[in-house]
């Protein structure tokens, strides 16, 4: 009867007051600073002991700041204060009670923590040890990176996830979680405030078994008041008092940046238009890992060791759940004493405790608790609560489900692109301008591109494009007008090209420093868009110059007599839009871009229709599986086909962020890859050589890059890139301007191969080709002869309906009336169906022994470790044509004739070059292609130790002597 009465009495008190009167008093504090976003508490303010280390503790958004004092003397601030540490706590308050609380976003909280650090540092004169629990730890990482470490002595986090991909709670597939997070961020949380009661119920549902067990235990012990009182404050905190609401914009930011896009791990999360990466962290970091934490899972928490490669990262692994890391007996007995010892170690006063050790990404627990213990414990709890045992199978099924969902997700992304591509007809309206406008309508606040550490949204970019269009209209530019674009890589260059597309004009893309006069004459261009840096060069051609970029306050270097219009001085709002203007009028069949390639007498124009651009754009996005989680770093310039079709096109079609690089600077590349969270890097030719040689990314250094995409990378550089940036791979493209050919080496296994046709692009064939006569070989029936496997032939593509074949098209190739478009390149196809570039049809060297192809020679030479760059070309000498290769040697390496002899064994003897000579350097074009013409212009190779000729009898390369040179060239040394 006494037990029953005690139960009734205690139960009535719980019903009336929400809990038992426990008499535990909170630790004393004063509010030192009040701001709109937070109140800054200083605990034990009467303790004025000088020289104490300082700790600033940050709670997660959904938990009351009292989490740090929930156990009073046995809690964080109590234990740390007794350890001689000055404790400060930032209190964000409840969004339901604070002015504008429901409008707070993630950046508001990061900036609040940053402001609190400034206040604490000013008040104490010491750097702070920044500590955060769960999302509070994420704030600690983000704020320190945002401040570049200023004012922070060390970071301590408790169950704070970093790598969401490898730590999705409950083993759910990341692809599914990412898509759900994106949907919730866009359509749910911004419209629905998350109240404290919703937060409380949500957390309890994350572990319903534990919640039910705790309540059952409480009811069983309700008669024993003395047994309940020690944990009563903690119980009330968890059941009701400890939860606060969560502002919708902050939830949306969290879901978008750190769940859907995993940018804590990859870098490139945005704080007030500024991209930030955890690679900026350099201070010591201690992460507490809960072995049985299903929210901040160990794999997710340990992601910090890769996300912060420049910091010394340590961990302490405890057998505790998410809440148990900071409150409860484990926290009192282990967590906070270890934190105190960590701070003493950081000050240099004490050695590092054994329980804290350098973090390993694939660490295994040293705890005495095995996986079996955890299963038994969980099973017991399940049995006590009367629940099912489905969770036991979670780990077994998770991997299979995750793999299936990810595969389905990739297919789901590719299918709409291929379907859309297949639906494009000649009269379909599609263009670069229309795709950018489509993105602005669908996701106006989503990041579009990054440049100079600033993020520009789709809406902002769309407004800028429209403003440039109004400026162009004012200057008389109309649809179908050809307008040159001579600009360095910058946002204004992207806006200029997109504005011309939106207007329906044709962008003639020219490389700065190229032969502008001849290029403008060749393309019939009289008006040129230029940036201030290229103004003078363009003006000297006599063309009308429209200047864009640099803002309206800069001074222009205008030559006397030049016709120059500054578009930045035109007020878009004052422009009267004419009746003929329709945004994005471009049809698929219409000309969109003109590229100018080559130099001197080999200057050529390449014409790209809207359909041709879209074909490469959607093809690239499909082959590279580009999506909104990717950030594409555009090293390739827009005036190169790879930059226009692959980099810009693929990123826009895939909905990816675009990171614009001002120039190819290895140090900036290393910083921006982390800061922007770059996952895909574009390249042309030997561009990556500069980055590899600078060694800004040592082998094994953590990075977010998953893919390099581009065209023209030599085989040896390809291998170096893959080795240096493991596990990233190379996706090599071949896109012909003629026809609709897009090849892609999707798997990247066959180094040097151009791969296979991208789905949705034109059907291709290889026809037998005679490089001597420059004609297609015909069979007895009059049709072209198809090439067998590994036979060299001309690549041709099936012509689309309605295409004009008068400019070199072919009919009746394999059947009466069929239509094909020839490319300018020779290929071979291996037995697996992969295509290998062999040479251009007009650069094959025709020697006395037959044709010698350049690309195999280049690939073989580039595979030699000592070779930096190389070119192959033909040399007229003594009435015959010789095949010659020139190489330059990597700094610190030495190249011997025997190295060349050994490498050339990969080629048939008749396909090997007659001469190989070493040159000091090989100039490169604006697109980083080694210049054959520049090497040829240096003259004939001279006899000596750095020139080697091929001896057919010994099949080796030997030093070219004066006598041998005279015989080979058919003249004396004086004529050489």
Structural class based on helices, strands and sheet pairing: alpha/beta
Strand order in space, largest sheet:
1-2-4-3-5-6-9-10-11
- Total of DSSP H or I helical runs spanning 4+ residues: 29
- Nearest-integer average pLDDT: 85
C-alpha Rg (nearest Å): 34 Å
**Low-pLDDT residue spans:** 365-412, 972-976
Helicity, as a percent range: 25-40%
N- and C-termini, Cα separation: 119 Å
SSE blueprint and pairings:
Elements: H1 2-17, E1 29-34, E2 39-43, E3 54-58, H2 76-82, E4 86-91, H3 106-124, E5 128-133, H4 135-146, E6 152-158, H5 174-187, H6 196-206, H7 208-220, H8 225-241, H9 248-260, H10 263-266, E7 269-271, E8 274-276, E9 285-290, H11 298-301, H12 304-307, E10 313-318, H13 329-346, E11 357-358, H14 371-385, H15 394-423, H16 432-442, E12 447-451, E13 454-457, H17 458-474, E14 482-486, H18 491-503, E15 506-509, H19 516-523, E16 527-530, H20 535-539, E17 544-547, E18 564-566, E19 591-597, E20 604-609, H21 610-623, E21 631-634, H22 641-654, E22 657-660, H23 666-676, E23 680-684, H24 687-694, E24 707-711, H25 715-724, E25 729-735, E26 742-744, E27 756-757, E28 764-770, E29 775-776, E30 793-798, E31 810-811, E32 819-829, E33 835-840, E34 845-847, E35 850-852, H26 854-862, E36 867-877, E37 880-889, H27 897-903, E38 915-918, H28 932-937, E39 944-951, E40 956-960, H29 962-969
Parallel strand pairs: 3-4, 3-5, 5-6, 6-9, 9-10, 12-22, 14-15, 14-16, 15-19, 16-17, 17-18, 21-22, 21-23, 23-24, 24-25, 37-38
Antiparallel strand pairs: 1-2, 2-4, 7-8, 10-11, 12-13, 19-20, 25-26, 26-27, 28-29, 28-30, 30-32, 31-32, 32-33, 34-35, 36-37, 38-39, 39-40
């Amino acid at each position: 009867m006494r037990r029953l009465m005690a139960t009734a009495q205690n139960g009535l008190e719980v019903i009336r007051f929400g809990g038992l009167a426990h008499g535990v008093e909170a630790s004393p504090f004063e509010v030192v600073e009040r701001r709109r976003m937070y109140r800054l508490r200083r605990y034990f303010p009467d303790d004025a002991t000088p020289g104490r280390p300082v700790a600033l503790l940050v709670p997660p958004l959904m938990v009351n700041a009292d989490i740090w004092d929930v156990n009073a003397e046995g809690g964080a601030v109590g234990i740390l204060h007794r350890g001689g540490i000055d404790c400060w706590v930032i209190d964000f308050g409840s969004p339901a009670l604070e002015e504008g609380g429901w409008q707070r976003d993630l950046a508001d909280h990061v900036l609040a923590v940053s402001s609190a650090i400034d206040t604490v540092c000013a008040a104490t004169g010491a750097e702070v040890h920044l500590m955060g629990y769960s999302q509070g730890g994420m704030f600690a990482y983000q704020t320190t990176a945002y401040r570049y470490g200023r004012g922070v002595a060390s970071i301590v986090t408790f169950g704070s996830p970093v790598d969401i991909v490898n730590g999705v709670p409950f083993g759910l597939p990341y692809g599914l979680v990412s898509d759900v997070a994106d949907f919730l961020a866009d359509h749910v949380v911004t419209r629905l405030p998350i109240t404290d009661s919703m937060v409380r119920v949500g957390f309890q549902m994350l572990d319903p078994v534990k919640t039910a067990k705790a309540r059952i235990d409480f009811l069983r012990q309700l008669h024993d008041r003395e047994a309940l009182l020690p944990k009563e404050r903690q119980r009330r905190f968890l059941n009701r008092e400890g939860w606060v609401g969560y502002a919708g914009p902050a939830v949306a930011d969290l879901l978008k940046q750190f769940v859907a896009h995993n940018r804590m791990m990859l870098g490139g999360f945005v704080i007030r238009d500024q991209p930030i990466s955890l690679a900026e962290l350099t201070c010591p970091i201690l992460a507490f890992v809960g072995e049985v934490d299903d929210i901040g899972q160990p794999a997710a928490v340990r992601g910090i060791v890769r996300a912060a490669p420049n910091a010394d990262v340590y961990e302490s692994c405890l057998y505790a759940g998410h809440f148990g890391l900071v409150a409860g007996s484990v926290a009192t007995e282990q967590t906070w004493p270890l934190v105190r010892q960590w701070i003493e170690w950081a000050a240099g006063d004490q050695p590092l405790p054994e329980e804290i050790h350098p973090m390993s990404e694939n660490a295994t627990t040293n705890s005495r608790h095995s996986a079996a213990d955890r299963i038994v414990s969980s099973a017991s709890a399940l049995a006590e609560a009367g629940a099912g045992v489905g969770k036991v199978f979670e780990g077994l099924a998770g991997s299979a489900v995750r793999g299936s969902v990810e595969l389905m997700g990739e297919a789901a992304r590719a299918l709409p692109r291929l379907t859309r591509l297949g639906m494009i007809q000649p009269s379909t309206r599609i263009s670069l301008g229309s795709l950018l406008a489509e993105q602005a309508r669908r996701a106006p606040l989503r990041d579009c591109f990054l440049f100079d550490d600033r993020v520009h949204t789709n809406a902002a970019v769309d407004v800028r494009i429209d403003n440039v269009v109004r400026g162009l209209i004012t200057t008389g530019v109309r649809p179908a007008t050809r307008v040159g674009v001579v600009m360095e890589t910058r946002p204004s260059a992207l806006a200029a090209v997109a504005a011309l597309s939106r207007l329906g004009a044709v962008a003639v893309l020219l490389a700065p420093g190229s032969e502008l006069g001849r290029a403008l004459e060749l393309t019939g261009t009289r008006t040129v868009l230029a940036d201030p840096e290229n103004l003078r060069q363009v003006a000297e051609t006599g063309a009308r110059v429209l200047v864009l970029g640099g803002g309206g306050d800069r001074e222009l270097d205008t030559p006397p007599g030049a016709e120059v219009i500054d578009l930045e001085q035109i007020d878009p709002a004052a422009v009267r839009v004419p009746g003929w203007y329709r945004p994005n009028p471009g049809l698929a069949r219409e000309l969109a871009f003109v590229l100018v390639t080559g130099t001197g007498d080999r200057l050529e124009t390449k014409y790209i229709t809207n359909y041709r651009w879209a074909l490469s754009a959607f093809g690239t996005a499909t082959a590279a599986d580009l999506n909104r989680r990717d950030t594409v770093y555009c090293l390739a310039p827009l005036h190169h086909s790879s930059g226009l079709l692959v980099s810009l096109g693929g990123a826009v079609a895939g909905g990816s962020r675009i990171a614009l690089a001002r120039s190819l600077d290895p140090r900036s590349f290393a910083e921006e890859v982390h800061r922007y969270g770059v996952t895909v890097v574009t390249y042309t030719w030997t561009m990556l050589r500069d980055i590899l040689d600078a060694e800004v990314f040592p082998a094994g250094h953590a990075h977010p890059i998953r893919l390099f995409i581009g065209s023209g990378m030599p085989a040896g550089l390809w291998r170096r890139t893959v080795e240096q940036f493991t596990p990233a791979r190379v996706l090599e493209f071949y896109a012909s301007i003629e026809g609709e050919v897009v090849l892609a080496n999707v798997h990247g296994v066959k180094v040097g191969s151009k791969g296979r046709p991208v789905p949705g692009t034109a059907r291709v064939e290889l026809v037998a080709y005679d490089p001597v006569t420059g004609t297609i070989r015909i069979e007895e029936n009059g049709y072209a002869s198809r090439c067998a496997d590994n036979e060299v032939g001309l690549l041709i593509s099936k012509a689309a309906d309605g295409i004009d074949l008068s400019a070199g098209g072919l009919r009746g190739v394999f059947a009466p009336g069929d239509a094909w478009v020839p490319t300018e390149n020779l290929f071979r196809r291996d037995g697996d169906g992969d295509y290998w570039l062999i040479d251009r049809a007009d650069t094959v060297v025709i020697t006395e022994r037959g044709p010698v192809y350049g690309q195999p020679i280049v690939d073989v030479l580039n595979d030699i470790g000592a070779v930096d760059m190389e070119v192959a070309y033909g040399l007229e000498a003594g009435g015959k044509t010789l095949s010659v290769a020139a190489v330059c040697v990597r700094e610190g390496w030495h190249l011997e004739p025997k190295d060349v002899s050994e490498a050339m064994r990969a080629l048939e003897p008749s396909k090997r070059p007659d001469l190989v000579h070493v040159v000091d350097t090989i100039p490169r074009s604006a697109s980083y292609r080694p210049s054959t013409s520049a090497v040829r212009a240096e003259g004939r190779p001279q006899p000596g130790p750095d020139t080697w000729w091929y001896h057919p009898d010994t099949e080796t390369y030997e030093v070219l002597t004066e006598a041998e040179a005279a015989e080979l060239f058919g003249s004396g040394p004086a004529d050489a």
